[in-house]
Amino acid sequence: MHEQVYTASKRLACQDFIDALDACHANPWAKWTGGCNAAKHELNMCLRKERVERTAKNREKAKERRAKIEQAWKEIREE
Question: How many domains does the chain have?
Answer without folding.
Answer: 1
